[in-house]
Amino acid sequence: MFLAVIGLLTISAEYQKTFAQDNQAAEQTEAVAQAQDDVVDPFAAAPDDKPIHQQLKKLFIDGGATFMSLVLLCLILGLAIAISKIITLSIAQNNNTKLLNKIEDCLKNEGVDKAYELCRNTPGPVARIFTQGLLRVRDGQGIEKAEKSVIEYGSVEMGKLEKGLSWIGLFIGIAPQLGFMGTVLGLIQAFDAIEVAGDISPALVAGGMKVALITTVGGLVVAIILQLFYNYIISKIDTIVVNMEDSSISLVDMLVKYSK
Prior knowledge:
Helices cover 85% and strands 0% of the residues. By secondary structure, it is an all-alpha fold.
């Protein structure tokens, strides 16, 4: 009986020890799992992230309504001029080859008067240049006068295509300057806070530095956007001018050919 009691107590102690170890292992496993769940992914978006338009609104207000409004005005006016210019240039890009073929048919079969009426009723800078050259031939002023008129009026049309680009360039230059001015004012604000407090503290200069950085970024972003539109417009104008020159040379060759 004594041995049986001792054996029972030993088995009970071992069982309790094993049970305690299992519980401890389970608690450790649960703690590790909980710690893994609590790890914050730095690339994951916060559940309470604000929409992008609210973030931009906050940056606009933090940057100072005065200078940020001026920077935004530069962006709006620059984009308005750029978009209107792109639409105008897209309309000006006619099928010059098709127009030249029609003019050649008119010169071959119906004469200069019919070719002049065709160009007069066709929109676009190339058709207007052709109209001036054909007008000189129709009035009997000769091929040389027509060629000179085509060259001179080509310069006029090229000036019309480039009209308005100076305003886009102006806004490209002004926007960063407004941002830099906001930067200077933000630094002045920070130093004023330091002077009043008599101590240098990150909390004192943070507000001024934030204004300075936001206005600078805003001006640079506006300048970059408008610069992209400006370069695109310049490339379209260059393409149209090259087509104008090629078409003008082809027109003069036709006039020489069918005037004999």
